[in-house]
Amino acid sequence: MAASLGAQQLTRSGAAHQRQRTCLRPVPRVLVPGRALVQHQLQSACAASKLEDVPLFSDSSSLLGGAPKTSSTSAAAAQKAGPTKVEDVPLNSELGLDYSTLRDYLAAGDVRKADDETRAMLIKMAGTGAVQRGWVYFTEIPSIPAADLQTIDQLWRAASGNRFGYSVQKEMWVQAGKRWPKFFKAINWVQGENNVYLKWPAEFIYTYEAPKGHMPLTNALRGTQLFQAIMEHPAFAKGVGGTAGMSIDERSKLSGKDTLKF
Predict the structure, then answer these.
(1) 191 pairs with which residues across the strands?
(2) Residues 6+ apart with CB under 8 A from 228
(3) From 57, 74, 96, 252, which residue has the greatest number of CB atoms within 10 Å?
(4) How far apart are CA 105 and CA 121, in angstroms?
């Protein structure tokens, strides 16, 4: 009996000695966010002599500093895309204009009427002179508030799944090196080897299945100054870092650095 008790005491003493040796070792550096919290839990476990009971991965949110977060790239892309339903687009206007008619045409899938309404609203945005003459000078575009142009753009983007809109056209224009013939071909506004303009309105495609960037239309028969003024409006230069729609060279110039050429 005495020998049995002695053996048990010896076993317990040996286990305690082993735990003491474990706790005397440096606490491992766990290379994850919230490292200090992990080390604290390990030290607490040593004090309790129960290192094997530390739940290293049972509660990842507490050990890793909170719930998983969306990457900044994904968040930026989602912010850029805007609302996914045309009904959810806020009808912001610094000019006090009502864009509900445009929204309703787009929601109903009436692309032809939506395009006509977009031109009508652009004339109203340009001011009294444009309303009286019935068309817009390119010099009137810079004075249009960004909020109004962005509202029209967001309505088109939401209705088309980010395939139509001024900002979509701006991106494609930049991708084409701001070369109008190449850009017009990409959005299917010209045809044939000589890049002849499509006849308005019969030859344009008034559906959401049209090529990307096909809508809305901007008259370029008398030159591209009006279209360029829209593309270069600050409303479509904003984004993450204020460089949305810029080429690599343009972003480099803005940051004061030269782009490496290979």
Answers:
(1) 196
(2) 138
(3) 252
(4) 13
197, β-bridge pairs = 190
Q: Rounded to the nearest 10 degrees, how much is the dihedral formed by the CA atoms of 101, 107, 109, 110?
A: 0
Runs of H (alpha helix) within 48-145:
60-63, 72-81, 100-108, 111-126, 128-133
Query: In the structure encoding, which two tokens stand for residue 59, read together?
Result: 């509660």
Specify whether the CB–CB gap between 172 and 213 falls below 8 A: yes
What residues form DSSP beta bridges with 190?
197
- pLDDT, tens digit, 9 for 90 and up, residues 213-241: 999 999 988 899 999 999 999 999 855 33
Q: How crowded is residue 33: how many other Cβ atoms within 10 Å of its Cβ?
A: 12
Q: Which amino acid is at 89?
A: V
pLDDT band at 35 (very low <50, low <70, confident <90, very high): very low
| Residue 185 pLDDT > 50 | yes
**Is the separation of the CB atoms in 119 and 216 below 8 Å?**
yes
Q: How far is CA 5 from the centre of its chain?
A: 72
